[in-house]
Specification:
single chain, about 200 residues, alpha/beta, Rossmann fold, two-stranded antiparallel sheet, 7 helices, about 35% helix, globular
Length: about 200
Amino acid sequence: MPPRADLPPTHLLYLHGFRSSPQSFKARRLHAWLREHRPEVHWWCPQLPPSPRAAMALVEAGIAGWPRERMAVVGSSLGGYYAVWIAERTGCRAVLLNPAVHPARDLAQHIGEQTGFHDPDEHFFFRVEYIEELQQLAVPALTHPERFFAVVAKGDEVLDWREMVQRCRGAEVKLLEGGDHALSDFDDDLPDLLRFLHLCPSP
């Protein structure tokens, strides 16, 4: 079934970015809001393995029993790239936060040992075969752009905002004149995200 655009999700998936974790401040901020205002919403923000194939296998297994018409996904950076793939496969609504558009190109320079952003003692190896795995997850275009909402910062120091806007053609896009890749002012964007998902009323 297609998502019910007039109803809030009962299940919400958050996908973090490269080198990030469930400790992402955006994930924690959104989860905190849900705990306070919509505790009935089932929240899942898994720690994604570095292998894109393994990451999506983990997610697909985790959401296998979720109601497609009442679930949604939020993805940040590389998680935004994954969120597009998940949304296209499930038909659910998606929120993209400075989403990666060409991660196979951009992450080719990061092959080798990496450290976790939130825990420098956490190490993982980003393998060359992961580039092909990213390519296999590519979605040529959004088939139902009305199901997508994106927050894109022109001040993103990691990704090209023009590529992000082009990727989200036809979707609702909140384009920030400044900002940064981390969306440090995420509290300003949270109400728009919640409105799109019908988790809180429009102002």
